[in-house]
Amino acid sequence: MCSVSTFSYLLFYALFTVLINAQCTNPTIRREWRTLDRDERAAWISAVKCLAASPNNPDLVATIHQTGMFLPFHRWFVHSVEKAMVEKCGFSGRFPYWNWTIDAPDFYESSYGVGGWGDPDKDYKVQDGAFARFALKYPSYHPMHHQYTAQPFAAFAASSPTFAQDLAGTRPATTEDCIPGNKWSPNSPLFFLHHVMIGKIWSDWQNLNETSTTAFAGGSVQAFDNTTYLAEYPTGAPPMLNTSSDIYTHNMFPGVTIGDVLNHTARYLCYVYE
Ligand SMILES: *[C@@H]1O[C@H](CO)[C@@H](O)[C@H](O)[C@H]1NC(C)=O
Ligand SMILES: *[C@@H]1O[C@H](CO)[C@@H](O)[C@H](O)[C@H]1NC(C)=O
Ligand SMILES: *[C@@H]1O[C@H](CO)[C@@H](O)[C@H](O)[C@H]1NC(C)=O
Ligand SMILES: *[C@@H]1O[C@H](CO)[C@@H](O)[C@H](O)[C@H]1NC(C)=O
Ligand SMILES: *[C@@H]1O[C@H](CO)[C@@H](O)[C@H](O)[C@H]1NC(C)=O
């Protein structure tokens, strides 16, 4: 299993203006990658590259995985990056997601796709697709690597006490964050496609039952002491979080509470899935 208690997230340094619409009257639409046409894919790829070339301020180090912060944090993080793409890079398109149940072992590789899994003979540097030889600046200048292992968390998932725990163990299908030491999974564009998918799974679950739409539970500390403790606190141990808890941002993007992101069709997020 790949357990990483703290993550360094590459965070794009952006001067945000006021992000929050008083109302959500015209929600943006998030769609599966393969349903976007070539122009829509190209617009997203271009905005990702634009933002990667912008000055950035890295190092948000916080315990996000296997805690109650997992879903709310990523929902707000992806949204904040999308806002930066809009404001700094003129992005006006649809932010896509990748439904990896369709094709996890074989993601799209054309020049309008995000590229393959890296060439093992070239240290897994990505050689094809729109992100071939994509250059990253954090932590120092380097080309992007993708090393894919099919179902790396299958054993972990099988032993997870709950679906929520299983979900919080989900990672982008790259070794970016699965080799010893902190890696920078948001360096890969797949990180965002993956986390929008995770957000959709949460959204689908929220919509199953009206009780779920506002449900939230989870702690702020990983409960890895022993299996009993983990079974008791699968989504994080005390101190417990609640809907008034602030989402971690290190002042790199505007702060909101967990309660502010439970409803993605309301004013803070304002998007729907199609
Ligand atoms: C992913 O695609 C499969 C196959 O089309 C579909 O059954 C499933 O609902 C999709 N998952 C999400 C979260 O949209
Ligand atoms: C909705 O969730 C509540 C609380 O978990 C449960 O009591 C209820 O039976 C659920 N309703 C449906 C229709 O599943
Ligand atoms: C498991 O962890 C809990 C919380 O830290 C502790 O109270 C308990 O004694 C531990 N049990 C074992 C068997 O170590
Ligand atoms: C949320 O948690 C904070 C910090 O533990 C606590 O002060 C506050 O009373 C809690 N709010 C609710 C509504 O439970
Ligand atoms: C979510 O927000 C939208 C827009 O404000 C609102 O119409 C909807 O009722 C909200 N859903 C819940 C569960 O509060």
Protein described:
The protein contains seven helices and eight strands, in the order ββαβααββαααβαββ. It has 274 residues and is α+β, with helices and mostly antiparallel strands. Helix 2 packs across helix 6 (189-206). It is globular. Residues 1-21 and 171-182 have low confidence and may be disordered. One 2-acetamido-2-deoxy-beta-D-glucopyranose binds next to helix 7. This is Di-copper centre-containing protein. It comes from Lentinula aciculospora.
Helix/sheet category: alpha+beta
CATH class category label: Mainly Alpha
Mean pLDDT: 79
* Element-level helix/strand string: EEHEHHEEHHHEHEE
Shape: globular
- How many distinct beta strands? 8
The neighbouring-strand order within the major sheet is 1-3
> In the CATH classification, which architecture applies?
Orthogonal Bundle
Give the helix tally. Answer: 7
The distinct ligands, each listed once, are: 2-acetamido-2-deoxy-beta-D-glucopyranose
Helicity range of the residues?
25-40%
Characterize the main sheet. Answer: 2 strands, antiparallel
**CATH-defined topology:** di-copper center containing domain from catechol oxidase
Low-confidence stretches: 1-21, 171-182
CATH superfamily: Di-copper center containing domain from catechol oxidase
